[in-house]
Amino acid sequence: MSAHEQFGEDLVLYALNALEGEDRAKVEEHLASCSECRLELEHLRGDGALLALSTSGPKPPARARARLLEAVAKEGKIAASRAEGAREAGHPKPRWAWLGWAAAAAMVVLAALLWNENSGLKQMLAAKNEESAQARRELEDLRKVAAPILSPQTQRITLVSTKAAPQPQGKAFYLRSRNSLVFVANNMPQLPPHKAYQLWLVPPDGAPMPAGVFKPDARGSGTIVNPPLPAGAEAKAFAITVEDEAGVPQPTTPIIMIGTGE
Amino acid sequence: MSSPDRQTISPDLAVVTAVKSGDQGAMAELYDRYSSVVYAVALRVLGDTMAAEDVLQEVFLQLWRNPSAFDAARGSLGAWLAVIARNRAIDALRKRKPETDIEDLVVSVAPDLASEVDRSRAAEKVRGVLGSMPSAQRSALEMVYFQGLSHSEIADKTGEPLGTIKTRIRAGLMMLRKAFQT
Prior knowledge:
The structure holds 2 protein chains of 2 kinds.
Chain A: H1 8-15, H2 21-33, H3 35-53, H4 62-82, H5 86-89, H6 101-150, E1 169-175, E2 180-186, E3 195-202, E4 209-214, E5 222-225, E6 237-244, E7 257-260
Antiparallel strand pairs in A: 1-2, 2-5, 3-4, 3-6, 6-7
Chain B: H1 3-20, H2 24-46, H3 49-65, H4 77-93, H5 116-132, H6 135-146, H7 151-158, H8 162-179
Helix pairs in contact in B: 1-2, 2-3, 2-4, 3-4, 5-8, 6-8, 7-8
């Protein structure tokens, strides 16, 4: 528990949606400016999630699955045909079936309206398809970049001076705008039982933020992928300490590795 | 958090990514994976199967409509859905509008909850911790979490001072957290 003590109990109640009125407003005001308490809030919700997950009972009836999937299919079809939904709102469907001759004239007008709308929808659909294709290309590029780093089959070769023994080495790839962090370590010495290496994001100001723990494999390699981090946290450096394997909120041992941005 | 974290996040991430692209089969897969959790939480809070089914439907439809609300980089999908189910069930119980936007809800849990076996093991451990708590503490925790009572309502109900109730709730949650840190 590392949250500011004066908010400790109210933060717990806030995390459980059990804080009301002025106390709730005070906690929200504090959270807006305190990343440490925001992180603690995430953990408190996690503690609550454990309570939720401890419940047991009958499985939901089969009809619930059918009902959901029917609704999903229905919404899927609507989404596919409505192009953001906005245009349809302005064109309610006419009820003209019983209008006889008058309906014929209305149908001509309606056909023109629909033709216009159809053209607009086609253009929007084409734009969406292009966006989707672009997203797929970006994802594919990312996969190509990430695959050699993440795959267990990857050969990891670290080149060092021929006169030096292999040294522990870590590489952090941090994309702040997406809150995404990949860390790869090599040549890490083995640790005693129940101990692990803990990565820290070191901000320009304030305390280091926990950024995941790892134990090296038999070859001394380890990875951390996308640990929980406060949104948009700025990194001045990344550092490594040896901690208990569950991780700790603040470093308790000296930093053994540190690196700043390249 | 290294390789366990990857194992926790990746399977869900793949399915959520498919849901984002409108894959209805992926949605069915997520439902099969987590509907029991969501339904059990809702039923525990509401005590009514029809009302619990409504929460179940609402939670998964929210995920279908807005899968980007779940940030796979920052937590377990099972834990996230369980918290949303609990919150929505409490909202339904208290007949109030949803208090938390699902996009603002980040849930961080220590144990690996990726598989049903992991979740069962964690649930068993939580039940063990609850069983070891003093009954007044367990009761305060259950009243706030599963009945949605505020600390002042619990104080009124039990006749205990407000500060005592707050302390019990906080200490109870910390006991749970500690159990997964050792």
